[in-house]
User: Which sequence fits this backbone?
């Protein structure tokens, strides 16, 4: 593994594509309203005809640096560039108001680098053991795993579990449109010829994450914040690294949370921030009033999620968050099959992902220390200029995939759907996962039923295996644990009526 990764560290073409992605991630993530998810979705269409290695290098650069750069606008204008940077505003912006914007950006950069490297190293260490376990999976196991992922994302990406689960069901419904893989007949196409091949992934993702953001921004009329002045100051690296031992604990939290399908950076940063308040006896300032300890916790955890979220995506084909759900679609578009056999059949691509992420970490450090403090004017680009550009890119990205006007219409449809879901407090991440995983659930469930139908004890054949039983129990616990009545009973707010 080490030789394969190091070979890419000296490949100028590979490094160049990671740099392109890193620079794009820096600017996209720093501008409020342009999320990493949206940038990755747009890149799916741009990299559609590229070589697989070039596409993976660019997307890993965007992913790694894009997650960090959300902290730039969070610190300078109190508007998080990404959901995972919400916690960063709690102490980052107060530091900027005190005239310590340069110091805050340096802390954010260093510990984003630490978190990203930690998560990727854990990914490299755990990918093979998890793969060996996954090789023992049967069709019913894959179905339950995907279902468990959808149940988890339904509970963690929405204030309401039922709303999250409903969003996932919407995605599953759209994934079933097209030719039936078993019967060979059109299914849910409503007589539309262009739907026989199914819903194209690229227009759907561009609509849900790109065009929906444009519609939301136009509807809400979000005000542009004013950027704090940045005064360069000398911040010794040894002072910054005093928090390194504690940051490893936050990184561990971020990696573990990232490995849970659907949790992601926002959950990890909130958990790490809560732990920081508990274990830091004497913070530099009160938390929420410019304590750099809070900044360290948030940025270490949300960047460590990158490696954690990649683990289930690569080894089990279950995305850890919305970005890895989009990256999963990149795999399928380029003919790759993530899952238990990926490390054996596609070891070279695993090295490209790992090397792309680690090189992206290096560019994160360089761009964060040298460029981030100097892009305040870019952050403040008026929405009336930025949003039309994004809308045009969405149209171009949707059309470029198959060169069909029909796909542009699909993109607009999913954009409107995403906008309506957001207005009703429904998360779009479960829609994405349902769209990506629905086909896998459908085919594996039908295979499991077909295999069990020839047995004298079909239920025992389907479920009486250790792995299957564990996945079934986890799925039931997730479903039952998020039911309103169960939540009330656990919190003592109410009693379940007979």
Assistant:
């Amino acid at each position: 593994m080490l030789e394969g990764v190091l070979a890419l560290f000296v490949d100028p073409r590979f490094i160049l594509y990671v740099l392109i992605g890193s620079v794009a991630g820096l600017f996209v993530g720093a501008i409020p309203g342009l999320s990493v998810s949206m940038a990755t979705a747009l890149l799916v269409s741009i990299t559609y005809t590229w070589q697989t290695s070039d596409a993976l290098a660019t997307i890993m650069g965007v992913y790694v640096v894009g997650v960090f750069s959300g902290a730039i606008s969070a610190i300078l204008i109190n508007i998080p560039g990404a959901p995972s940077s919400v916690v960063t505003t709690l102490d980052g912006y107060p530091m900027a108001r005190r005239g310590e914007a340069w110091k805050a950006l340096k802390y954010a950069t260093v510990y984003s680098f630490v978190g990203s490297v930690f998560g990727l190293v854990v990914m490299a260490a755990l990918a093979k053991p998890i793969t060996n376990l996954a090789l023992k999976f049967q069709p019913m196991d894959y179905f339950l795993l995907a279902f468990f992922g959808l149940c988890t994302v339904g509970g963690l990406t929405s204030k309401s579990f039922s709303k999250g689960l409903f969003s996932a069901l919407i995605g599953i419904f759209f994934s079933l449109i097209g030719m039936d893989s078993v019967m060979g007949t059109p299914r849910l196409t409503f007589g539309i010829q262009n739907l026989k091949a199914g819903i194209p992934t690229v227009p759907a993702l561009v609509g849900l994450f790109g065009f929906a953001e444009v519609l939301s921004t136009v509807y809400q009329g979000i005000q542009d914040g004013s950027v704090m002045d940045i005064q360069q100051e000398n911040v010794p690296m040894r002072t910054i690294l005093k928090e390194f031992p504690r940051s490893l604990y936050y990184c561990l939290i971020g990696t573990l949370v990232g490995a849970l399908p659907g949790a992601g950076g926002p959950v990890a940063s909130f958990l790490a921030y809560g732990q920081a308040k508990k274990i830091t006896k004497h913070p530099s300032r009160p938390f929420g009033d410019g304590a750099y300890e809070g900044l360290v916790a948030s940025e270490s955890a949300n960047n460590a999620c990158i490696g954690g979220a990649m683990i289930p995506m690569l080894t089990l084909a279950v995305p850890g968050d919305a970005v890895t759900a989009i990256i999963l679609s990149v795999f399928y578009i380029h003919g790759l099959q993530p899952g238990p056999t990926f490390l054996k059949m596609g070891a070279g691509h695993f090295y490209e992902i790992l090397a792309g992420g680690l090189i992206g970490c290096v560019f994160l450090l360089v761009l964060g220390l040298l460029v981030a403090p100097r892009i305040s004017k870019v952050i403040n680009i008026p929405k009336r200029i930025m949003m039309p550009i994004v809308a045009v890119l969405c149209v171009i990205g949707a059309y470029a995939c198959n060169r069909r006007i029909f796909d542009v219409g699909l993109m607009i449809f999913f954009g409107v759907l995403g906008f309506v879901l957001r207005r009703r407090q429904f998360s779009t991440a479960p829609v994405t996962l349902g769209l990506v995983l629905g086909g896998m659930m459908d085919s594996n469930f039908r295979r499991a039923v077909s295999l069990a139908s020839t047995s004298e004890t079909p239920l025992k054949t389907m479920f009486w295996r250790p792995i299957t039983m564990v996945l079934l129990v986890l799925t039931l616990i997730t479903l039952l644990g998020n039911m309103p009545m169960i939540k009330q009973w656990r919190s003592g707010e109410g009693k379940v009526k007979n």
